[in-house]
């Protein structure tokens, strides 16, 4: 097994820089997810690691060895793509064994590895089928099987679940995570879906516009987003962001632009006298008969919880309640805010100011 390091990695297409100096340290056996909006450079970074794209600057190491100019086949990696790229005229068994055949592995060894991967993935009974005779989830498993038989140092996944329906995605998420727990192979996984990142990763790298915005465990990113971008990107429904300033007379009170006072528990000195964004996750708002009034804009019952949009501090604020709410749009609801979970960001730089 092997760790992976990116050191000041850069990539331009012509004059156009798309990766602008990326540093990431991936430990041996770690499951790391690169997440960010479409076009931020995730696939480019993964393709550079795989050797499918040359590197304009910096260094990429696999297992301590610089691989910048090493051809893909010598990097000991296996990649699973979004579109599976299975050979339609080959059976499951042939698809899975294809790379071993190319490498002229002995037949018995190849059969053993294919059997092993098929066993892990529950494909034992489908080895004679052709891709067209498989469901989307089964095809995805064959694509993973093809990677597993190679027993690589590093697995790379590029949006492997985006072609699956919502239910299957959830099931495959758990399967891939379980697979990693079993094989413990270093994994770099790319997705635009923050839920996938949160649920599967040991460590998440949030990317935006060719730079790394923050690296951390899922809950570190959720609880202490380094900036407005990460705060807004991680979490669903998204963090509420209300503009305003601390009250100079009373710093535990945040004045929204419309004058509404919102609570702050530990105002950092740096936040005083600055334009701020008050970041509040929807679940830290609760129903409270003595609380702040807000007009209900939309109510969305999910069964398990109630999602609700309120007019508060001049903004539309999303709330998530465990309770069911019988009020109607247009009516006023009273709520309390858990001030100990409020995030303050510098409105100008977007940087987090709270500890
Ligand atoms: N071969 C290419 N030539 C020119 N521009 C490219 C090429 N591949 C990707 N890009 C550009 O690089 C940026 C990052 O792309 P990509 O890595 O595919 O993003 P992501 O996977 O995060 O959606 C995008 O602006 C994209 O248009
Ligand atoms: Mg991509």
Describe the SSE topology.
Blueprint: E1 4-13, E2 16-26, E3 31-35, H1 42-50, E4 57-62, E5 65-66, E6 77-80, H2 92-102, H3 107-121, H4 136-148, E7 154-158, H5 166-183, E8 186-191, H6 194-200, E9 203-208, E10 211-216, H7 218-223, H8 228-233, E11 240-247, E12 250-256, E13 261-263, E14 276-280, E15 285-301, E16 306-312, E17 315-321, E18 332-337, E19 343-346
The protein binds adenosine-5'-diphosphate and magnesium ion (MG).
Adenosine-5'-diphosphate binds next to α1.
How many structural domains does the protein architecture include? 2
Largest beta-sheet characterization: 6 strands, mixed
**CATH fold assignment of the largest domain:** Rossmann fold
Query: Helical percent range?
Result: 10-25%
**Which structural class should the secondary elements be placed in?**
alpha+beta
String of helices and strands:
EEEHEEEHHHEHEHEEHHEEEEEEEEE
User: How large is the count of helical segments?
Assistant: 8
Which architecture of the largest domain per CATH? 3-Layer(aba) Sandwich
| Broad CATH class of the largest domain | Alpha Beta
Tell me, rounded to a whole number, the average pLDDT: 95
Bound molecules: adenosine-5'-diphosphate, magnesium ion
First and last CA, distance:
37 Å
How large is the radius of gyration? 24 Å
Structural summary, described in words:
This protein has a 6-stranded mixed sheet with strand order 6-7-8-3-9-10, with helices on both faces. A 5-stranded antiparallel sheet has the order 13-12-11-14-19. With 355 residues, the chain is an alpha+beta fold. The model has no long low-confidence stretch (mean pLDDT 95). It has 8 helices and 19 strands. Helix 2 packs parallel to helix 4 (136-148). 37% of the residues are buried. Adenosine-5'-diphosphate (ADP) is lined by residues 13, 18, 36, 38-44.
């Amino acid at each position: 097994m092997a760790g992976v390091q990116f050191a000041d990695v850069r990539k331009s297409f012509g004059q156009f820089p798309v990766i602008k100096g990326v540093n990431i340290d991936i430990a041996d056996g770690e499951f790391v997810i690169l997440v960010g909006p479409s076009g931020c450079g995730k696939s480019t970074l993964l393709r550079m690691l795989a050797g499918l794209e040359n590197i304009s600057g910096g260094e990429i190491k696999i297992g301590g060895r610089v691989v910048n100019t090493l051809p893909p086949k010598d990097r000991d990696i296996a990649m699973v793509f979004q579109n599976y790229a299975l050979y339609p005229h080959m059976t499951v068994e042939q698809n899975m064994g294809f790379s071993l055949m190319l490498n002229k592995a002995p037949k018995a060894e190849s059969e053993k590895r294919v059997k092993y991967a098929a066993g892990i993935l529950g494909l034992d009974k489908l080895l004679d089928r052709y891709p067209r005779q498989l469901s989307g989830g089964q095809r995805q498993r064959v694509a993973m099987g093809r990677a597993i038989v190679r027993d690589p140092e590093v697995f790379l996944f590029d949006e492997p679940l985006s072609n699956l329906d919502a239910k299957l995605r959830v099931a495959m998420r758990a399967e891939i995570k379980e697979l990693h727990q079993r094989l413990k192979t270093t994994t770099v996984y790319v997705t635009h879906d923050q839920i996938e990142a949160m649920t599967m990763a040991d460590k998440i790298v949030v990317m935006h516009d060719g730079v790394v915005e923050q690296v951390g465990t899922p809950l570190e990113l959720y609880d202490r987003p380094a900036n407005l971008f990460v705060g807004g990107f991680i979490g669903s429904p998204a963090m509420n962001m209300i503009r305003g300033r601390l009250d100079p007379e009373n710093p535990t009170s945040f004045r929204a632009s419309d004058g509404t006072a919102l609570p702050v528990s530990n105002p950092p000195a740096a936040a005083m006298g600055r334009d701020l964004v008050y970041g509040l996750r929807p679940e830290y708002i609760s129903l409270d008969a003595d609380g702040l009034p807000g007009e209900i804009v939309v109510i969305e019952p999910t069964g398990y919880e109630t999602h609700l949009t309120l007019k508060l501090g001049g903004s539309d604020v999303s709330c998530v309640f465990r309770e069911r709410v019988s009020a109607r749009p247009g009516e006023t609801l009273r709520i309390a805010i858990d001030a100990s979970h409020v995030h303050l960001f510098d409105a100008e730089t977007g940087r987090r100011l709270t500890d």
